Amino acid sequence: MSVVDLFMRLLSFESVTPDDAGSLAFIETYLQEYEAHYANKEGVKNLFLTKKFSEGPHLCFAGHVDVVPAGEGWKTNPFVPVVKEGNIYARGAQDMKSGVAAFVQAAKDTDSFKGRLSLLLTSDEEGDAKYGTAVMLEYLKQIDLLPEYCIVAEPTCETVFGDAIKIGRRGSINGTLVVKGKQGHAAYPEKAVNPIHQISQVLNKIAGVDLDNGDEDFAPSKMVITDIRSGMEVTNVSPGTLKMMFNVRNSTKTTEKEIRSHIDNCFKGLDYELTLVQSAYPFVTSRDSLVVKKLSESILTATGIKTKFSTAGGTSDARYIAAFDIDVVEFGVKNDTIHAPNERTSIKEIEGLYEVFRHMIVHFDRVLL
Predict the structure, then answer these.
(1) Do 19 and 45 share a domain, yes or no?
(2) CATH code at position 221
(3) Is the domain of 28 the same as that of 66?
(4) Bridge partners (DSSP) listed for residue 344
(5) On the CB side of 281, how many CA atoms lie within 13 Å of its CA?
(6) Selected catalytic residue, list 19, 124, 125, 343
(7) Burial of 212 from C-beta contacts in 10 A (0-12 / 13-18 / 19+)
(8) Which one of 19, 20, 66, 154 is the catalytic residue?
(9) DSSP string covering 19-66, please?
(10) Is the dihedral of CA 336, 338, 340, 345 positive or negative?
């Protein structure tokens, strides 16, 4: 089976989160020469396939077989892949069955490797991700099979295939701020305490404000206001409370503690309550890491492109992998149609991704060029 044939087959599984729709069993059978481990929880299936070829480093490829719901606006059946003008259309074509097909086929075609080669697959990435990759990693820790290095095959390229890999991700902190005033008649503002008026005096200190200067790896951590609501949708009553919600995609230079301190300084003297929830923590893999250097070499060899390093975008399962002190990077096809109707990727990209991963496997050792 070619990588394109495998890709088409995987796209045919209607694996909407958290249902793998039989795709993991199919992959297990396809790679029957690999030792299989399952760590399933709360209806989520997680598969780890591994093979020790020789002494040497442990390299793992990771990804998810689940996809978001198809939604409306498709020109074709989203779970019947269609080839048109060099592109393959189906839900999950970019995010991320292209990556899964590429590394599964690369592992299938591997006869020798200077170490241990593994694949980690989950059916719970697009949802809450509570019972997916993190559960498998805990299991691997218990049986002493955690990898040293990992490549997550999420779609990372921006303009052309090969132009970007992610060496880290920003964290995500969600905030809810409730400002308490005193409700009253709009004709008697002196008898009320209007929280809208109060927040207007400090909004310029929080809305879109950079909380740090960023660095070589991260853009500045920015406060993004996502919702403000107050009042009863009438014109003659001053509101008694105001609720504001915001998000900070934070670098390693800004923490939850520093965000709280910034809010406290801005809202000094006001009656308010602040709730902060960190849903993801920032991480970065050193540019000198073996996996970063080897992946960069493989991309350059396969595409002729000197890739750039990025930490932009949302969160991924790489955050769980990094938490286990595993050097992790992400690389995959372009990401311009992820989660959209008529999601697609090109045959040239899926074949190129396979070539990058094959080169990576063949040349992955502790000797650097």
Answers:
(1) yes
(2) 3.30.70.360
(3) yes
(4) 89
(5) 7
(6) 125
(7) middle
(8) 66
(9) --TTHHHHHHHHTTTSEEEE--BTTB-EEEEEEE-SSS-EEEEEEE--
(10) positive
3-class DSSP state of 243? strand
Q: How many residues does the chain have?
A: 369
**73 and 127 both lie in a single domain:** yes
Q: Model-level pTM?
A: 0.89
Interval 236-276: pLDDT, tens? 999 999 999 999 999 999 999 999 999 999 999 999 999 99
Any bridge partners for residue 278, and if so which?
173
Helix, strand or coil, per DSSP, at residue 327: strand
The rounded mean pLDDT for the chain is: 96
Tokens of 359: 């080169």
Half-sphere exposure of 282 (CA within 13 A, CB side): 24
Q: How far, CA to CA in Å, does 176 sit from each of 94, 183, 229, 243?
A: 34, 21, 12, 7
Kindly state the tokens that stand for 102. 């590429």
Q: Does residue 112 contact residue 276 with C-beta atoms inside 8 Å?
A: no
Query: What confidence tens digit (pLDDT) does each residue in 38-75 have?
Result: 999 999 999 999 999 999 999 999 999 999 999 999 99
The string of pLDDT tens digits covering residues 276-305 is: 999 899 999 999 999 999 999 999 999 999
d(C-alpha 307, C-alpha 305), whole Å: 6
Residue 323 placed within a domain: yes
Nearest to 24 by CA among 60, 63, 79: 63
148 and 215 both lie in a single domain: no
Of 249, 280, 311, the residue at which a domain comes to its end is: 280
- pLDDT at residue 315 in the model: 86
Structure tokens at 154: 């999420």
Q: How many domains does the chain have?
A: 2
Q: Is 125 an annotated catalytic residue?
A: yes
Using DSSP's 3-state secondary structure scheme, residue 260 falls into: helix
66 is catalytic: yes
Inform me whether the pLDDT recorded for 124 exceeds 90.
yes
Rounded to whole angstroms, how far apart are CA atoms 55 and 116?
Answer: 7
Tokens of 210: 């950079």
Q: Which domain holds residue 186?
A: 172-280
Q: Comparing C-alpha atoms, which of 35, 230, 221 is closest to residue 145?
A: 35
